[in-house]
Structure formats: C-alpha cells, structure tokens
Amino acid sequence: MSRRLLAPVLTIAAASLLLAACGQASTPSAAPTTAASAAASAAATDECSPANLTTVTGGQLTIGTDSPAYPPYFVTDDSTKENGDPASGQGFESAVAYKVAEGLGFTKDQVKWEVVPFNSSYAPGDKNFDFDINQISITPERQKVVDFSDGYYTVNQAVVALADSPIANATTIADLQKANLGAQVGTTSAKFIDEVVKPANQAQIFNDTNDAKSAMQAGQIDGLVVDLPTAYYITAAEIENSKIVGQFAAQEGGEQFGMLFAKGNPLVTCVNKVLADLKSSGELQQIQDQWLAGESAPYIKQ
Amino acid sequence: MNAPTPGTEIAYVDPQRRALVRQRARRNALVGMGSLIGFVLVISVIVSRTPGWPVVQETFFNGEEFVKTFPGLLSAFMLNVRIFVIAEPLILILGLLVALARTLQSPIFLPVRVIATLYVDIFRGIPTILVIFLLGFGIPALRLTGVPNGAIFWGTAALVLSYGAYVAEVFRAGIGSVHPSQRMASRSLGLSSWQTNRYVVLPQAIRNVIPPLLNDFISLQKDTALVAVLGPIEVLRQAQIDTSSSFNYTPYVGAALIFIALTIPMTRFADWVQERSQRRRRAGGGA
Asked: Which pTM value belongs to this model?
C-alpha cells in the first residue's frame, strides 16, 4: 500500500473508532432517567401537585398556540386588533387554558404562551411547550405520534358562504357537490370536504383561514368549510353579507378538540383530572356558553 | 481511429509515460472511491447513533406511510408539471422581449426602455410569493368582468412575471457579452438593426446564456409549489395535508424525491450543455 493511500484509510479508521467510543458513552445515560420516572410513579399519590409537576420551564406552565390566534377561541382586549391574544384570558380556548392552569395550581402570571405553528406542534424532538391548545381534533392516527388530553369541546363542521353565492341556499350535500369549496390546510375541515362532501371540483386548500376568507370574498371559492364556532364568528363579526349555509351532523364518534402533549408526557393525566372536574362542576359548559354561544344553524342533509 | 477534432493537438507520447499516466489515473479513481465510501459510512454511523434517530426514522422515513401517500403525491405533482410547462415558454418570450426593449438605442423608444426597466426592477425586487399573493388574491377581488379569476391562472401569471424579470436580465447579460465589434461589422455589411439582432447578436447571446437559463428553470420547477398559497393542491400542499392528518413527515420526503427526480436530469443536462459550449470555444470553432 502506497503512502498516499494510507492517509485517508487511517483517517477513516480513526474516525470510526472515535464514533464507536461516543456511541457507547451515550448508552448508560439512559438508565438514570428510567429509574427516576419509576420513582416518580411510585409517588403517584400527589403526582399532580405543582411541586411534583415537571414542566418545560420549572415553576411555570408553557402553553402553545398558533399565530394568528382566531376568535372566538382567542379574543383580544385591544380593539384595534382583529386576531386574538392568548394571554388575555378572553376567548374559549384561552379561558379553558387558564382554568386548567388554575386547576393544576399555577397562577395567571405563571402561565407563559409560546407561538407554536400547527405544523411544528407534532415535530419530533423536544417540545417548547407543556401543551398546545389550538383547535386540534383528536384522531387515532395522530395519537400514534402525540398524546391528547380528553376532549374539551365537541365540534361540528359548517359551511359559510356569501349571501350571493350559488350555494347560499343549499340544504343537502348534493347541492354542495357542484360548488368550489375551500378550507385551511391540515384541518379536519379540509379532510371533511374530501371524505364526506366529495365535491366534483377538488377542494381549494389555504395556508390559514384568513387566506380562505380572502378567496371567498374574491369569488374564487363559493363556500368555506370551518368548525361551527369559527363559522359563527366569521358571519357575525368578520365578513358582512356572509351566512352559515348549514352545519353537518357529527360523524360517527364525533369530533373532539384536545390539548396536544409530547408523547409520554405524564402531565396529561393531571390535565385530564382537571378537565374532568371542570366538566362535572359545569364550569367548562359555562365557558363554552360564554364564548361559543350562537343561534343554532340548520343541518345540511345527507 | 476517428479523425482528430480541430484544436486537439496530436503529438508523439512516450509509451512508458502513457502507462504511468494510466496507472496514476487508476489509483486516483481507487482512492476517490474509497474516500467516498468511507465518508458515507462515517456519516451514516454518526446519524444512526444519535439518540433521536429511531424517532426521526419513524417520522421522516416511514415506509408504510410512504407507500400510502406516494401515489397521491405523484398525481398532485401533475399540477406542478402543468404550471411550469405553460410558464416556461411564456417566460422565455417575455424575458427576451424585455431584454430587447432594454437594449433599444433610439431616443424615441425611451418610454419602452423606462417601462422595461421599471418592470425588471419591481418584479425582481418583490419576493415571488408576494407577487403570487398580490395577483392571486388582489385581481380576482376587483371582480372585473371578462378576467379569469382562477387561482392556477393567476399563480402561473405571477410566476411568469416574476421569472420573466430574472430571465430578461439573463438575456440582457447575454446580449452584452457579444462583442460590440460584431454589431459594427454586421451593420457595416449592410444588415439592418433588426437583421443584426436576429442573425448576429442573438444567436451568440442565447448560446452564451443557456446554462443560466436552465438554472432559472430548475428554480422555477421548485417554485411552482408556491402557487399552493392560492388554494390549488400541488405536490407540496398534498404532502402537507397528508402530514397533518397522520402527524408523520414522510410525505414531505416523498415530495422532495419527486422534485429531485425531475431536477437532477435537468441539472446534468445543464452541465452537459455548458461543457459542450466550453469545448466548442476551446476548439476555436466559429461562434
């Protein structure tokens, strides 16, 4: 072997040895964590007291949601702004989040909000939030990757259209199949169009609800599929001359919003306890009545 | 043996020297191969030994998810293909016209020159995605009668306008690269200004800019994904939809593979064209 060949071969060999060493060094470090979590579950009795809760940043609860945060889930005190402010405590999800925080033993000041785009909420790796509350529907497929709290709201889908839209007076799914429908990407509304409405023209999918609303006002789509509370908000406060064409009856099993946790985060059991209390005391219903009330929309027939 | 191509020098080469050269070439190839294999090995060992690798593998390289979503991605990709097949010729025409407008000499054409310059300045300065947003949501909102309001139409129009500005500059650089003496010689032979452009300047200019043009087209192929912001479901949007429904990122990798499958042959073709034109120039062949 010539000297010139020797150098690269030696480099590679040395690098591999070094790697082998690193790899071995990292294995034993896994052991203490499992021991620690075993100890933690042994003391399960007061697992949910604030002192025993492990949060992303100690002593505070970090909650994620997307930006813009939409009313009526997030409302703002600032009348100059249209999009909601999670830290205001106003709006359905903001109110629920603060109630949950309170139930866990955190004060309002100990709650910190983090902007978490929906698409990054389920990214692998460490999360920068304890839980994410962002109208995320619980599905078995998603549960393989993340953990969800129990549902805190059962949601129906609805169609919004301008009063002069060809589908403004639609009453059946067949009426809607001829229309151009739009929805926000990644939402169950978008999936709903594909799987339940099955329109002749492929659904138009937008980055966020604001873009979908622009497209509807520009006449590029005849109607917009969103969840019912959003539909109420759009028609009542955002787009003049728009109406809820109708809501769809719940699909089998219903669709529920849940808070999203990193897979295996023990915090989820504590949050579920708080949610159960809020449900049995009627407080959750109160919050819902306060923020999501609205006259009932007609149902779209199959 | 083939006849010697012009420019290559034929000289006597000592057979011993030739053997030495061949031996060295073989050894270089061997070392290169070994180093490449070693490098790939080292990188894969590093990656597969990171603590998060199993999770990353599960979320980004999930075979089951890949098989489930790939056919849908492929059919969504047909929209990308449609957009750039329509956009590419339009961009070439627009770019060439604007470049020619900017090189007009006569003072009477000042307005044309000003408009062409403004167009290039403005559309090259605005991020493509903004042009798409402005045209795609803005013009249909005017509710003009007789103007199409389709998202694909305006998305494609925005790409044509944005890339037209880039390509115009590429063509202008090509025209500038033709030596002024060529134009003078042609005019002194009695060719009109138009004939000079058509038969002398442009053939040389265009040949000079084929590699950068191909480069812009590869870039365009990827930017067709931007049209998705207006609503149509192209491959990247389809991947995003699949991803958000399963919380698994494998469809993005599938979309990346589809783009690569298209752009790599284009890139190799661009390399080949460039090499060929260089070879021709070295050979001293006529321009």
From this structure: 0.76
